[in-house]
Design goal:
elongated, EC 2.7.13.3, histidine kinase, about 5% strand, mainly alpha, about 80% helix
Length: about 300
């Protein structure tokens, strides 16, 4: 009987031990599923966000083992923060794209107005450029900033060419009119005033576009274009100054000239001359050398 009792007690002990083992295994299985299941889902969410699927996010955690302070909870919070930053960046890019499209539409509109004022080959060239610009405008969804900058450069180049042609034409007219009106003091004054006005209007437009392009290039990070744009703007300002001097001559002749004496650094003027002359010097394979004494000082002029 003692043997039977001992065997029965042993069997009961084995049963209890088996039950405990099963419970431990079930507990560990549940704990592993909660922990590694959350990590697996986090990996899937991160992969989706990286591929551009911003709808991916961590599910709400439930259960007795779920906690926002454990590793999986902190990982879930980090992923939610990352997703929020991506959505914010997407909104910023959408706003920038909208602003680029609006700006490019304005450029195309201005070019269309310019084409309406031209005739012959000049008008044909402008219309061809407008067609190219419209193609670039459609490509912005794929090429983004690159297409937008290409459009701006195309517009600026064409407008610059047309204004240069206009300046050359007006210069020829000025020379012809000057020869015809050399003996008529009053006619000469009116001539210079009218022609300087006709030159300043398109030149101011070019300077405005140059400054706009420089600001856009700075915003978009195209720093390699800034030196050329600044040279164009500097040359335009210098030419505008010469035109203003022409207008001053007419004022002197009419007795309405007012003097505005200002100081300027000689070295700054020399630097401007060097910047303006550098492209022509390089084009003709010449050398431009300037020897100036340090601290030469300033001058005064009207």
């Amino acid at each position: 009987e003692s043997m039977i009792a001992a065997n029965k007690e042993l069997q009961n002990g084995l049963i209890y031990a088996a039950v405990i083992v099963v419970l431990v295994i079930a507990f560990l299985t549940a704990l592993t599923a909660v922990t590694f299941g959350g990590i697996t889902r986090a990996i899937e969410v991160l992969k989706g966000l990286t591929e551009g699927d911003h709808s991916q996010q961590m599910p709400q955690r439930r259960g007795i083992f779920a906690s926002d302070n454990d590793e999986v909870g902190e990982l879930s919070s980090a992923l939610q923060s990352y997703r929020g930053k991506l959505l914010e960046l997407e909104d910023i890019r959408a706003e920038q794209a909208s602003r680029r499209k609006e700006r490019d539409s304005v450029i195309i509109e201005k070019m269309s107005h310019l084409a309406d004022q031209l005739e012959g080959d000049a008008k044909t060239l402008i219309l061809n450029d407008i067609g190219r610009m419209r193609e670039l405008e459609k490509q912005e969804t794929e090429r983004g900033e690159e297409a937008s900058v290409e459009l701006m450069l195309l517009a600026f180049t064409r407008m610059s060419d047309e204004v240069n042609a206009l300046i050359n034409a007006r210069t020829s007219e000025m020379e012809k009119a000057r020869d015809e009106a050399i003996d008529a003091k009053g006619e000469t004054s009116r001539f210079f005033a009218n022609m300087s006005h006709e030159l300043r209007t398109p030149l101011n437009a070019i300077l405005g576009y140059g400054e706009m392009l420089a600001e856009d290039c700075e915003d978009l990070g195209y720093d390699d274009l800034l030196p050329d744009l600044k040279k164009i703007t500097s040359s335009g300002i210098h030419l505008l100054s010469l035109i203003n001097n022409i207008l001053d001559i007419s004022k002197i002749e009419s007795g309405k000239m007012e003097l505005y004496i200002t100081s300027f650094e000689i070295e700054d003027v020399v630097d401007v001359i060097k910047d303006i002359s550098a492209p022509l010097v390089s084009k003709n394979n010449n050398a431009f050398q300037c020897n100036i004494q340090d601290g030469i000082g300033a001058m005064r002029q009207d």
